[in-house]
Design goal:
Helices cover 39% and strands 19% of the residues. It is α/β, with parallel strands linked by helices and 218 residues long. The strands form two sheets. Strands 3-2-1-4-5-8-9-10 form an eight-stranded mixed β-sheet, with helices on both faces. A two-stranded antiparallel ribbon has the order 6-7. Helix 2 links the parallel strand 2 and strand 3. Bound molecules: NADP nicotinamide-adenine-dinucleotide phosphate. The site of NADP nicotinamide-adenine-dinucleotide phosphate has 23 residues, from helix 1 and helix 4.
Length: 218
Amino acid sequence: VKIGIVGTGIVGTTLGDKLVSLGHEVVMGSRSAGNEKAVAWAAAAGERAGEGSFADAAAFAEEVVVNAAAGSASLEALGQAGAANLSGKILIDVANPLDFSAGFPPTLTVSNTDSLGEQIQREFPRTKVVKAFNTMTALVMVQPSLVPGSHVVFVAGNDAGAKTTVGGLIESFGWQRESIIDLGDISASRGLEMFLTLWVRLYAMFDRAPFNIAVPCA
Ligand SMILES: NC(=O)c1ccc[n+]([C@@H]2O[C@H](COP(=O)([O-])OP(=O)(O)OC[C@H]3O[C@@H](n4cnc5c(N)ncnc54)[C@H](OP(=O)(O)O)[C@@H]3O)[C@@H](O)[C@H]2O)c1
């Protein structure tokens, strides 16, 4: 399947590598085609990988686009990707609205009564936004066995069919179906994003990023 990735950071390259290894074709987008990181990634990832602008990546996608842009820049990046290129497609939103302008720990640019996931869904009403993967470090997204024991990945979004499609993709990454928790509509992004205020403290305490949430329920 042809998939577009908006973003050239560690999330973009990690998801890109996994998707290419699973046989998908991936175009990674950045603010301008020819971005050094995107070019290097595409060269290393092989013939099923390409690069271009955010708009090139979104236009390339048949059904699924990934938002792996910085949270504080996601609306801008997706605007550059273009509403028409995102229309009718699923947007897997991995971004966290972190504001590092005052140092560590970061604050959230939006929270409590709204979220980045909802802002994106409002801005692109013809796109099916599915929040997923934002609660864990990039490597765990594609290699859940890195974290011992059972642990979970959350999905949230307004379109049930889109969540089924994203769930299938998540399973193909090595997640058990019972480890995928559907939290309902896109407003569940609030809690998923506010978790980051705890995530960054856990990260500071462990001094390493591969940890995740387990949800035992009696
Ligand atoms: N790092 C993790 O393990 C992790 C885990 C879960 C969720 N997340 C979230 O996933 C997203 C990606 O994280 P990341 O660490 O891979 O990368 P990042 O450094 O947060 O973001 C890099 C991307 O943001 C774009 N960008 C930055 N400023 C921009 C602007 N003003 N306008 C348009 N685009 C802009 C960059 O464009 P260019 O390509 O043009 O430079 C680049 O593609 C973030 O929202 C992050 O919070 C990260």
